[in-house]
Amino acid sequence: MNELPNARPETDSQGAASLALRIAVIDNDSGFLQVLDKRLDRLGWEHRTLAGPAPVDEVVAMRLSAIVIDLAILGPQAWEYLERLCEAMPGLGVVVCTGRSSVAQRVRGLRLGADDWLTKPCHPEELIARVEAVVRRRREVDERRSAGPVEAGELVIRNDHFQAFVEGRSVALTRREFELIELLANADGRVLEREDIYQRVWGYAMVRGDRSVDVFVRKLRHKLEAASPNWSYIHTHFGVGYRFAAELREGADIVPDAPPADFVAEPANEAAALEA
Amino acid sequence: MNELPNARPETDSQGAASLALRIAVIDNDSGFLQVLDKRLDRLGWEHRTLAGPAPVDEVVAMRLSAIVIDLAILGPQAWEYLERLCEAMPGLGVVVCTGRSSVAQRVRGLRLGADDWLTKPCHPEELIARVEAVVRRRREVDERRSAGPVEAGELVIRNDHFQAFVEGRSVALTRREFELIELLANADGRVLEREDIYQRVWGYAMVRGDRSVDVFVRKLRHKLEAASPNWSYIHTHFGVGYRFAAELREGADIVPDAPPADFVAEPANEAAALEA
DNA sequence: ATCCTCGATCACCGAATGTTCACAGCTATT
DNA sequence: AATAGCTGTGAACATTCGGTGATCGAGGAT
What we know:
Structural class of chain A: alpha/beta
CATH architecture of the largest domain in chain A: Orthogonal Bundle
Helix content of chain A: 25-40%
Low-confidence stretches of chain A: 9-17, 255-276
Number of strands of chain A: 12
Largest sheet of chain A: 5 strands, parallel
Shape of chain A: elongated
CATH class of the largest domain in chain A: Mainly Alpha
Radius of gyration of chain A: 23 Å
Oligomer: homodimer
Largest interface: A-B, 72 and 71 residues
CATH topology of the largest domain in chain A: Arc Repressor Mutant, subunit A
């Protein structure tokens, strides 16, 4: 059998790529935690250690990127806890880091929704690399939208200001409202389902019957209409969700400051058909 | 230190949830491959084993969900290969499955873009579980977008809009209608039985005598005919079910608006507007 | 301590959508 | 050609969905 080529000396953990993450560690191995804490501090990751299974709601509230769990300290409800956690937060990176285990146990954990399973004792550096690997994809997707300001119709959405503007005036969106419109606007004209939206803005799974998304869409529409009366931006797709697209309102064909021509031709579209 | 709770006996690998994946394995450990092959077959995953590093382009062409690599057989260029691969296919799940390795090696591999690193010898079941875990996320984000628009006759079925279009105009399908036609259209000309259709669109088993599928087919035909009168799309197979295929209607061999080709096909529609 | 903003829920209502049924029209057999 | 079994149709009926305004409670700011 061939040899595995040698690795270069470990590159600096602060490598340009790795942005700061928020993670929590559920463990009680003080020695391990101490070492880990130091490394995490050095990386600039926000982190918190928990002695036991925090209620899922609380974990949700922490807005984590990932969580590291030693299943052994959770006792018999470990599996159930793991399952509930993964179900409630499909976007959360879950790395199990625990003592000796059987194949069946590892398989079970992974099937329940864990993203990785690391056996103790392990090197903190590897744990960190695995957490990074787990979080990487999600980040790649989320990040591409946090690029420069988005413009649509009269609206300018600036994530550096956490605010949207019309003709330089702030639309006075709250945080949630902003996150919602940012998500929609960056969806590139696609229709987003409520579950998706909720998942990505609120950070955890939507329970059936939750109307939060609708309510916020209404608030957004209200503020947007006040600020930019001739345009409509958020379109409902019945039974599915919402779609963002700047469209001239009916009867507002005179666009004072608008880029000439092109745009006026557009409204013969799906939305129009649906609303008909 | 507490004990890790026992896992239940391993649940059936064919678990309902796990859809078929396409994966490739770069390895040459014939014993391992044999066992793995059998398992993968049983799971219904399309898989292929490669004796060595296929050119990255070729791997791209395989349209894989994930790839399993034994770095050891790649020799000295292993790292470089891994890096190029991960870079070229950010959406590909990469699981390194290789012999003994140092922490530094594992960390390096993960940093280069690998999603998981498993040490041989390992149980195939665990490998499979890890591949599933790796693919899980990707699937969540990527799945919707992956299936590009389907075109047939004058019809364009877009799953990013949950809608079908004819010459850029929406056919105004409801969600169920859309899901039904999407299913049929993706069935690639095969005849689907009502039970199948119901099962896959409604999500549960059809009770004998339920006519929902028929009713929806009717609604679909109605809307499609209104939007694209010269074509018929859904065909009945008596005693069996339905088949999707765009076919010119009898006596409509002259397609009135077709000749100037491109022009008509590129309407000033929503799609165009969005891409602007 | 008190005021105020923001987010989470609720209940209500009109509208869009899905389900079911009876009957008419077809198809393949006898 | 007659018949039993499928499928197409239209409409009534039941459900679900989304918009809206109001209320309530948690925190933050004053």
